[in-house]
Here is the input.
Amino acid sequence: MSQITYRPRRSCLYMPASNKRALEKAKSLPADTIIFDLEDAVAPEAKEEAREQAGAALQSGDYGKRELVVRINAMDTPWFAQDLKQACRSGADAVLVPKILSADDIIRISGLMDDCDAAPSIRLWAMIEMPLAILNLAEIAALGSQHRLTTFVMGFNDLAKEMHAEQDRSVFGPVMTQAVIAARAYGLNIIDSVYNDFNDPDGLEAECLEARKLGFDGKSLIHPAQIETANRFLPPCGCDCRGRGDNRGVQGPGQRRQGRDRCRRQDDRAAASQAGQAAGSHRRSDCRFGEIAGSPSTSRQKSLSGQLKWIVTGR
Here is the structure.
């Protein structure tokens, strides 16, 4: 019986691959996963340079035991083919593809990865951020047993835009539950969406606690300042009840039950500690899952301003 190798993914930090200073800083950050971003964080005129810098970073060997992922551009963009080829040949642990719509997209991308002679160890992560992807969650997740797919990454910013909805996390309660159920039904990992305001640690903490409660394996992040909170409040558990490693080992029912019991004991101790901390800050619980005081438009503007500073300066 093979042994599952668990890999924690509490903190999955997007790093703009066009920013050399940010890439250098990532070598010393305590994030479980570094996602070299070629998509949202990179301007069109910087796409090719970002691709080259991501490839060099992947091959450098300077990032220790961190999991290294490349978020490439979507399938309908002029950068997709070269992004995918570079990621497959640079030794990434996984390729994160945005704007996934259906199971057919997973089949096609997996085939293209094979055509690029990608090592079997290079996995496929799927951004779940389009209405059609939500409607097709079960069909997409079911391909994990046959193709390279191992992980869902939620993207609520783009999903809100596509839905013509407000940037309000409470809108996505049913979507989060449905996505976690689909992932667990077919043995996938699942990462929560970003929290936009990295200057609001209380809001991030609330979202991390909610993500833990719902069963997410980790949270995607936009700034190094968010890493400590994600690592503290999301589970580093190595048992089967919190997802699986990318090595497709098998555990028997008795082993899974023992793992779940061990995890519950760990969760109970963590919950007791968190309850003591929360007692002194009751007002924070009045905020629904990380909503920020002030108008949504004001907090969104603050978030975008902060993200732009990080992309340009790496600070």
Remarks:
- The chain has one domain: 11-313.
